[in-house]
């Protein structure tokens, strides 16, 4: 009797072990991706057009930042924030173009909201006292509104 119990336990352990080693079913395409094969996505990511666009964005950023060099004070800070924001938005748009998903579109809207917020915050530094506080509050409210709109459009696009 003890041998049957031992045999049953070993068989159960073997079957359980084999079940955990079996490959799990994976979806044929990445979730939210219009591309049917992940290797195709890699080809798009390293395509000449994609790399050229990315290099152009970097060149535009460096040129915009160089235009800020002769400025001084807060005007220079605003200029640099604007250049960085434009770069982030352009990179997000490039990724959205490559991916073509609702999430990528949301990331573009999010990048735009964050860039506008950073620039507005920097512009508020020129003000003093209550005006500065009001300016910063307005910038925060504008960002919150833009983020809410981006989230709402993401929900609509996913339905």
What does this structure look like?
The protein has 159 residues and is mainly α. The chain has one domain (39-158). The protein contains 6 helices and no strands. It is elongated, with a radius of gyration of 26 Å. Residues 26-31 have low confidence and may be disordered.
Key features?
mainly alpha; 0% strand; 159 residues; elongated; 6 helices; 81% helix
Distance between the termini: 60 Å
- What would you report as the Rg, rounded to the nearest angstrom? 26 Å
Mean pLDDT, rounded to whole units? 81
Write down the domain tally: 1
Low-confidence stretches: 26-31
The class by helix and strand makeup works out as: mainly alpha
Please state the overall shape, judged from the principal axes of the Cα atoms. elongated
Order of helices and strands: HHHHHH
SS element count, helices: 6
How much of the polypeptide forms β-strand, as a percent range? under 5%
Helix content: over 70%
Number of strands: 0
Q: What does the largest sheet look like?
A: none
């Amino acid at each position: 009797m003890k041998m049957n119990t031992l045999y049953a336990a070993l068989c159960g352990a073997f079957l359980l072990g084999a079940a955990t080693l079996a490959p799990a079913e994976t979806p044929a395409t990445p979730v939210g991706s219009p591309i049917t094969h992940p290797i195709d996505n890699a080809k798009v990511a390293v395509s000449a057009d994609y790399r050229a666009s990315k290099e152009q964005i970097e060149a535009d950023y460096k040129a915009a930042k160089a235009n800020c060099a002769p400025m001084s004070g807060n005007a220079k800070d605003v200029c640099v924030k604007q250049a960085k924001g434009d770069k982030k938005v352009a990179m997000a748009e490039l990724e959205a173009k490559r991916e073509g998903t609702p999430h990528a579109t949301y990331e573009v809207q999010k990048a735009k909201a964050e860039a506008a917020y950073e620039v507005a915050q920097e512009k508020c530094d020129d003000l003093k006292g209550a005006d500065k506080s009001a300016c910063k509050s307005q910038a925060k409210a504008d960002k919150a509104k833009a983020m809410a709109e981006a989230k709402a459009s993401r929900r609509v696009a996913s339905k």
